[in-house]
Specification:
By secondary structure, the chain is of the alpha/beta class. 39% of the residues lie in helices and 8% in strands. The chain is built from 17 helices and eleven strands. The strands form four sheets. Strands 2-1-3-4 form a four-stranded parallel beta sheet. The protein has a three-stranded parallel beta sheet with strand order 7-8-9, sandwiched between helices. The longest helix has 23 residues. It is elongated, with a radius of gyration of 47 Å. The N and C termini lie far apart (101 Å).
Length: 495
């Protein structure tokens, strides 16, 4: 059936604007007739008035012949005929409301000129007016792939008779032959929002969660508060009547609650810990405590050709060497004591006058005694007095001193005794720790001075002010970089 005939076989009537070029009118008449339509000399009561958009005659025709009594009389561009021919159907006038063209605005985010022109033609062929401004338009057409589109939706979605549509929406409406606006869908109104838990967290939930974390990991610096196991163990407590509340959420939800609100919850946990004041490593806690960042450097003693390699110390003990001593006597101490020395290095505390005045020696045995101080172990016999306790020892008893090498055999001078012996024999005194820390600090400052080519006095002066070894190292590294970057000309200017 020809596209310009209705279901009853009657021809669709057309009226052509009189001042359109005769060549165009002749072509229109031929096309309309070939597709089953009829060109009238008068404006039809029902049918299409073909106009040339933007002309005074078009405006006159619309004013004269637009009437609510004639809702089936449509004004379309004369290109409508060719558009119907290409589409293979009579394009319906769907973009009409109460007999008036629906005002539309093509947003500037649709930047392609040809696309804008094609969209405008398609709207007019289906009865709409694409020339309206954004404020007066009922429909704003935009590119859905841009941020502007979402902004327009949020700005106008609440206004009546105001619609934001994709430029593809026009084509869909034309193909369906009906005006269908994209509905606003409210997903799960009153339900869970994106990112929210299925069961809302209450203040009581958060208090219990903070109390659990405060019990297991009271000090955040030990790490582990975002680990899965902490929250899995929490949910494993569900069988305990006191922990029945944990079933309100999954362990993943408990973990996410802390992760997303860690800054706020950490403050609550800190308050709980401050009230309970648990010690590090109390029963029930996770036993992870961060070690000191800096450790004393291990310096290997050079071996002769016939000297066997010393055995490695037992796990849990650290061997350090005093590079100022000619014999490089090893100082063997438990790792726990060594970490205290490391702490003294990283966080130097105030030393009393007698301690700070002590010279750095090769071993604790070389410490100078204060006036009037006697060592009970090395007291000598005077006159007829009984011999001191050490003089009463049997010759068969082996004496071990903290500053002497430990020997388990003649061929292995560095063999370390078992843990119990070492604990009893080789735990240095507090003064020894201070001496070792002073020596390591002094050596570290010398290393910084040598590495970055500054005097030891300059480095020591800055370290005495800030008290932080790493900060001292970074400062003189940066100073050297600045000095190195200065050009010869700049150096002359400085001089």
């Amino acid at each position: 059936m020809p596209i310009f005939q209705d279901v009853n076989g009657l021809a669709v009537k057309f009226f052509i604007q009189k001042d359109i070029a005769q060549e165009i009118q002749a072509e229109l008449c031929e096309t309309i007739t070939s597709l089953g339509g009829r060109v009238e000399g008068k404006v039809p009561r029902q049918g299409y008035v073909l106009v040339q958009t933007g002309t005074a005659e078009e405006e006159r025709l619309r004013l004269c012949w637009t009437s609510p009594d004639r809702p089936e009389r449509h004004f379309v561009p004369y290109t409508y005929v060719e558009a119907c021919k290409i589409a293979g159907m009579l394009l319906k006038q769907i973009f009409v409301h109460n007999g008036e063209p629906i005002k539309m605005h093509i947003h500037s985010c649709i930047a392609n000129v040809n696309a804008r022109a094609a969209l405008s033609q398609r709207i007019m062929h289906s009865g709409g007016d694409p020339t309206a401004s954004a404020q007066s338009a009922s429909v704003i057409l935009a590119d859905p792939t841009t941020e502007v589109f979402q902004h327009l939706v949020k700005s106008f979605q609440g206004l009546p008779d105001k619609y934001i549509e994709s430029y593809l929406w026009v084509k869909k409406c034309v193909e369906k032959g009906a005006l269908l606006f994209t509905p606003l869908v409210y997903k799960n109104p009153g339900g869970r929002r994106p990112g929210e838990e299925r069961t809302q967290f209450t203040d009581a939930d958060e208090e219990r969660l903070c109390d659990w974390i405060a019990t297991k990991i009271p000090y955040k610096e030990t790490g582990g508060r975002t680990g899965n196991r902490l929250y899995q163990q929490l949910c494993e407590m569900a069988g305990d009547p006191e922990y029945a509340w944990v079933t309100r959420h999954t362990w993943q939800s408990w973990r996410e609650r802390y992760k997303k609100n860690s800054h706020r919850l950490d403050a609550i946990i800190a308050t709980i810990v401050d009230q309970k004041k648990p010690a590090h490593g109390e029963k029930g806690q996770y036993g992870y405590v961060r070690r000191a960042e800096e450790k004393p450097k291990r310096v290997r003693k050079k071996r002769g050709k016939n000297v066997e390699e010393p055995n490695r110390p037992d796990e849990g003990f650290i061997v350090t060497f005093d590079s100022t001593s000619q014999d490089s006597m090893p100082i063997i101490m438990p790792a726990a004591i060594s970490s205290q020395v490391g702490h003294l290095i990283s966080h130097p505390g105030p030393l009393d006058a007698s301690t700070s005045a002590l010279p750095i020696r090769g071993s604790p045995a070389e410490e100078e005694m204060e006036d009037g101080e006697e060592s009970e172990e090395w007291v000598v016999r005077v006159g007829d007095e009984p011999p001191p306790p050490w003089g009463k020892r049997k010759a068969s008893e082996e004496i071990h001193e903290p500053n002497k090498r430990l020997r388990s055999s003649e061929h292995d001078p560095y063999t370390i005794p078992n843990g119990d012996q070492l604990q009893n024999q080789l735990i240095p005194s507090h003064e020894t720790l201070l001496q070792v820390s002073l020596h390591v600090i002094d050596q570290a400052l010398r290393d910084i001075a040598a590495e970055h080519r500054f005097t030891i006095e300059e480095v020591k002066e800055y370290y005495d002010k800030c008290g932080e070894m790493e900060r001292t190292r970074i400062r003189f590294k940066k100073l050297r970089q600045v000095l190195t970057s200065v050009t010869d000309d700049e150096k002359e200017d400085i001089v």
